[in-house]
Each structure stands twice: as C-alpha cells, then as structure tokens.
Amino acid sequence: MSLKTTITYETDYYGWVQKQVELLELGQLDRLDVTNLIEEIKSLGASERRALISDLTRLYQHLLKWIYQPSQRSPSWVATINISRRKIQTLLKENPSLKPWLPEAIQAAYADARDEAYGDTGLVLETFPIEPPFTWEDAMEQPIRLEP
C-alpha cells in the first residue's frame, strides 16, 4: 500500500488499519493517526472485557438451567458449559490483567444469565436467586455429566 494514498479512519477503516501498520513498521511515528489509534487500542481492551462477560453469561445461564430444570438436561448443555469454561480459562490466561476485574464481570454476567435463564425456561424469575447459587470455583470446575 502506498503511503501517498489518502485513507482516513472515517472513510476506509480496513485501509486505515493497514496504513497505520505500515507507518509503524517503517518507523514513521510522526505520520500516525494517534487520536484514532488511542481510541482503537482502548476499544481492544473493552472487547476483551465484553468477551469475558459474554462467556460468563453463557456459562451461568446454562448452569442455572442445569440446576433448576434438570428434566431438560441435554448433551448440548454439557457442551455449552464445557466450551464456555474453556473460553473463560483461555481469556484469563491470555489476559491476566482481567483477573482483578473478575468479581465485577461475574456480577454483570450473572444478572444477564438470570434473565436469559428466565426467558429460556419459562420458570418464574424468582426461581433463580439474585446471587449465584454456586461459587466461582464450582462454576468453573464442578463436573457436569448426564446421568445414564
């Protein structure tokens, strides 16, 4: 890509990213779009936080359904719980700075999971406790298996 091409953040995001990478690789730091780069870097951190909340929500939603609707348990629930656990473990391993933020993420995720479980099950909302009925360790490690 030629550096002479006029590409802006507003008109061609992908082209703008490629241009910023090229400028960084060439060491032409004075030509970088610093304002938009700062915003993009901030949003990268925010996307990791959103991913953590999303995976926690999915995990807690299925754990609630597992606990409060045992007659509906299925292999897909087992798979969803296991996949969510692995995604959370990977996210926290790759982003250890998220760990101190985990209690806040759990609180946000559980509130959403409670509403999702309510919507999925048809049970009354009050069926699901306001606080998680399991510890963080249980949520991440308690074996989940279908009875034969």
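the 2nd protein, sequnce then structure:
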Amino acid sequence: MSVLDFSDLKSTGVIIKYQDQPYQIIWSNFMRTAQRKPVIQTKMRNLITGKVMEYSFKYGEKVEGADIIKKKMQFLYSDDSGASFMDPESYETIVLPKQLVADQLRYLKEGTDTLIIFFEDRPIGLDLPVKIDLKVVETAPGVKGDTATGGSKPAKLETGLTVNVPLFIKEGDFVRVDTRSATYVERATQQ
C-alpha cells in the first residue's frame, strides 16, 4: 500500500485506490488559481465496473496506489459459469465470471496467453494486447477487380467476432484486429 504524491496524479494510466475500488486515471488537468491551492481534475475508470467518473483532487489530499498485479495466464475455454484460465507455471486454474470478461472473450481462442489483472489478490479483468491475429472463417468471396482500397465486407472470425475487412480478404486468411475498437488493422501472416 503506497501513498502517491500529488504530482503522480497528472499522469494518465496511473491506477489508484479510491473508495476501496481500483481506478485508472484516463484524463487529468492541473489547475492553479492565485488565491487557492492547486487542484488536479481527473476522469477515472473503475477497473471492476468500467464506469467513468470525474473527481478533483486537492493539494495535500492523501491518495493510495492500488495493489494491482498482472499475471500471465492461458485461456482454456468459456461456458455458462465463466471463462477458465490456467497458470502455465503452477497449472492452477481460475474462473472469471462471464459478465466481467464478456466483451473481451470475443478476441480469445483456446491457448491464447493473456494477462489477468488482480486487485488485492482477486481477479478483476483481462489486459488484452492492443492487436490480436485471428483467422477468417466466413466471408463473401472476393470478385476479380477488387482493389485494396475499394470498400469492405463483413468477415466472421474464428472466435465468433465479426469485423469489416477489405474486399481482397478471403476465408482462411489471418487478420490483425484492434481489441480497443474491434476493427480490422491489416492482413496478418499465417500462424
């Protein structure tokens, strides 16, 4: 449990403990007026619920750093009870509730290594890479004359996620997908 310095709150990405919950600062603005103490206005995302809130920290206010640990684990499968992950070193398995990771499961296939975020020894979510390569399992065939810049079509990927891809992408191709926006980035090499 570490107490953060007031100036640490200026950095986006800092994870703090606020009202016994882990929050990540996603925006901050330092303000100082002539007669008053400095204030840092922030927007913070709750890492458990995903809700964003605004709060202004005053100079001298005590802020705790959150006890966050990221542990590399391997995705095994998901079912109605949740998503199962295994520690590759100890072979210990944990199950994350489905509602906690439902949006992120559409990027994971069996055997995918990912980081599990733990807050006070309790798993609270996944830290996915920004880009993931997935195989196209279903899309309309390309037509001769299609160009690399001439439009897009929907493609279903091996995890069930559907993204718009350029017309030249065909079934069996691997595509790189941005996990923040669920959008096509580029064609990926075969795996």
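The mean pLDDT is 87. DSSP finds one helix and 16 strands in the chain.
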